Amino acid sequence: MTREDTQTPISSLPYRLEKLGNTLFLAVSDEHRFGSDAFLLADFAGQSLRHKDYAVDLGTGCGIIAFLLYKNQRPTKMWGIDIQPQAIDQFRFSVDYSIQQGEDISDILQAECCDLKNIKSCLPAGKFDLVTCNPPYKTGGTGILSADPAHQIARHELLCSIDDVCAAAAWLLKSGGRLCLCQRPERLCDTLGAMRAHHIEPKRLRFVAKNENTNPWLFLVEGKKDAKSYMDVLPTLIFDQQTAARLTHYGDYE
């Protein structure tokens, strides 16, 4: 019996599949999916990620950031952490399905269902070189809540705040380890303040705009644990069609 004989037909799978490479697949659902900000953050965080590194993606959702970092940088170990069991089931399905297609990722990509506010019960302190997070953009009690609970958690600080994210990152990171986040520009002061409060010094900042004549709609920031004060503000990234094509083209997925 060949591997093809044991594969499950795509039409009968519980999720939609995005093909990130020849044998690398990501399951997406209406509850747990991704947008362009995930590609931007993965590209930003991956620029100095090394093969020997250990990394964690907090609030991983479907796992897109973890999968992109695996695809392009191949860290030694990459964890995805989420409080929602359905998200973790979806992440693990992607790993299992990709293995079935011939992608050997079982020893690299791991998923854990965990409240990042209780990260001490899930992962060890001071072991990790990189923590990433695409956090909720809106504070609790602001904006219009989606009818979908998963979307509420992803968009609003209902179960965790930016301070909680930075506290978890501070626990996980080695001295000199990096935290990479994306967030809306109106949350810049909140984000930088939370990083510094947990001894993660902002070191690299980049705004993202749709064109040269519009205000930024996103920023990317990298902080380093226990580092000295100095931040490099990079040129604004114009997220036009050319940039979008470069960032969102992985294997056969575009």
From TrEMBL:
This entry's Gene Ontology molecular function terms read: methyltransferase activity
Q: Name one Pfam family in it.
A: Methyltransf_31
Q: Does the keyword Transferase apply?
A: yes
**Domain of life, source organism:** Bacteria
List, alphabetically, the SUPFAM superfamilies matched: S-adenosyl-L-methionine-dependent methyltransferases (SSF53335)
**Which keywords appear in this protein's UniProt record, sorted alphabetically?**
Methyltransferase, Transferase
Give the record's GO biological process terms: methylation
Q: What is this protein called?
A: Methyltransferase
Q: Which organism is it from?
A: Candidatus Faecivivens stercoripullorum
Classification of source organism: Bacteria, Bacillati, Bacillota, Clostridia, Eubacteriales
